Amino acid sequence: MGVKYLKKGDPQPPPVGAGKLRLYSMLYCPFAHRPRLVLAAKGVAFEMVDINLKNKPEWYSLLHPQTKVPALEMGGGEVVVESLDISEYLDRKFPDPPLWSADQEKNRRHKQLLESFGKILPSYMKLLGPNASQLVDEAVSSIAAIIKPFENELAKSGTKFFGGARPGMLDYMVWPWAERAEALRSLHPDAKLPLQDFPRLLAWGAAMKQDPAVKETAMSPEAHAAFIKVYRDGTLDYDKL
């Protein structure tokens, strides 16, 4: 896609100007996808710098001690790290449109769901690993159990999105993995996720694809699948992404 990923030996970008935002990212990383969705939803301009996560620039540890993505840098040198913290920060700094509800009980449920969603990562990583074909059934069973409460929440609310009539914070925080699900299904055609058990989540996914922020940040299933293949095979070359 012609993206330049900064690597070891590359100079650090100049300081961020006053009132400006710079997001350190990696185009295919679902965690880095989260704040890009929030920024797009709020119509906030920003500079994106992609990082080579196999050969990271020496200076990046000064911004993020764990050298992960994403990291958000602002004028004056302030830095926020971790996808959820960045997204929460952006929602406070740019409150229109708000991504949390005025209903605090609803927010409490959604934060609990978001916390539980973190349990999906080990199963997701199994589907990316070299032994994925032997672990598909176990991973899919685990994922189905984790997302069932999300199906129930949509049934309870009776709304198209978790946020109501439009996507909210929970919608955008889980969407990056939903976007990659189609690519994973193409790579694991024998996976037996019981789709009939998730009619509301399927409708939610179709509605999310029509959201302007999702469209702005979207990548095709084919692009995701191609990345997953080279990641899984150990042949990932950032200069060829």
Automatic annotation (TrEMBL):
Keyword terms of this UniProt record: Oxidoreductase, Transferase
- Biological process (GO), any one: glutathione metabolic process
**Pfam families per UniProt:** GST_C_2, GST_N_3
Q: What does the record give under GO molecular function?
A: glutathione dehydrogenase (ascorbate) activity; glutathione transferase activity
Domain of life where this protein originates: Eukaryota
InterPro entries attached here?
Answer: Glutathione-S-Trfase_C-like, Glutathione-S-Trfase_C_sf, Glutathione_S-Trfase, Glutathione_S-Trfase_N, GST_omega, GST_Omega/HSP26, Thioredoxin-like_sf
Q: What class of enzyme is it?
A: transferase
The GST C-terminal domain sits at 103-227
Show the GO cellular component annotation of the record. Answer: cytoplasm
> EC number(s) on record?
2.5.1.18
The Swiss-Prot or TrEMBL record describes its family as follows: Belongs to the GST superfamily. Omega family.
Q: Spell out the protein name for this chain.
A: Glutathione-S transferase omega1
Lineage per the UniProt record: Eukaryota, Metazoa, Ecdysozoa, Arthropoda, Hexapoda
